[in-house]
Amino acid sequence: MARKTKEEALETRDGILDAAEQLFQRKGVSRTSLADIAAAAGVTRGAIYWHFENKGDLFNAMVERVVAPLEARSLELEQEEMNDPIEFLRTLLLDAITRIAGDPHFHRVFEIVWHKCEYVDEMAEARDKHMEAGCRHVETMERAMVKAQERGQLPPKLLPKQAAIGLMALLDGLIVNWTMNPQMFPLEEYAPWVIDAYLDGLKQDC
After folding, report:
1. The pTM is what?
2. Residue 153 backbone phi and psi in degrees, to 5
3. Largest CA distance in the chain
4. Using an 8 Å Cβ cutoff, are 149 and 158 in contact?
5. CB atoms within 10 A of CB 168
6. Which regions of the chain carry the CATH code 1.10.10.60?
7. What is the pLDDT of residues 128-164, one digit of tens each?
8. Which tens digits make up the pLDDT trace of 180-199?
9. CA–CA distance from 167 to each of 32, 103, 123, 137 (Å)?
10. Residues with Cβ < 8 Å from 61, sequence gap 6 or more?
11. I need a surface site. Which of 16, 49, 85, 101 has the fewest CB within 10 A?
12. Domain 1-52 CATH assignment equals 1.10.10.60
């Protein structure tokens, strides 16, 4: 019985997050209330407060639901493929792009994060978490850049941190523009060429 209750609670939580995604994408975060989300999810506001402290906490959980699998995959790839750091970077980015472009949850959440949220007041913590996640991604890429230099895949004069930040900015730019105009920026079609061009450019003078 306890197991069934836990499963039902998780189902309710996912239903709330699904409703929040839909409403945040359509109305924006600031114009969506917890009452709106409760009505769309078919639950009471009390049910929302059972799972989340406030709208900011709910927003963070919505983002975490799609970001956590990406970070888990990043750690998995780093352990498996760091013998070829450049190929690791390419696989890491293209794997993330495939997941983001192929799953409606990812598309909605990234559109909300980039275009439908003002990071002030109760959403300020969400901005901090977003920045922390970005720093973790840059650190992963920087480690790969250092290893690539050690293996002679990148020139000694390259600054690994700056190169990692550039790669992160490239990825963010692709996703931001894709969520805004997917017809002009078809992510899965353009991303491999753009990423390869950047990585090949880093290899100059090797």
Report:
1. 0.86
2. -80, -20
3. 65
4. yes
5. 18
6. 1-52
7. 988 999 899 999 999 999 999 999 999 999 999 999 9
8. 998 998 999 999 999 999 99
9. 34, 23, 27, 10
10. 13, 17, 51, 52
11. 49
12. yes
Collect contacts of 186-189 with beta carbons under 8 A, ≥24 apart. 187/97, 187/100, 187/101, 188/97, 188/98, 188/101, 188/102
Q: What is the pLDDT of residue 4?
A: 54
Domain covering 55-203: architecture: Orthogonal Bundle (1.10)
Assigned token pair, 103: 């799953």
Residue 12 is encoded by which pair of tokens?
């309710």
C-alpha to C-alpha distance for 88 and 93, rounded to whole angstroms:
9
Q: What is the pLDDT of residues 113-135, one digit of tens each?
A: 999 999 988 888 888 988 999 89
Listing DSSP states for 113-132 in one string gives HHHS---SGGGHHHHHHHHH
> 77: pLDDT confidence band, cut at 50, 70 and 90?
confident
Q: Which residues of the chain does CATH 1.10.357.10 include?
A: 55-203
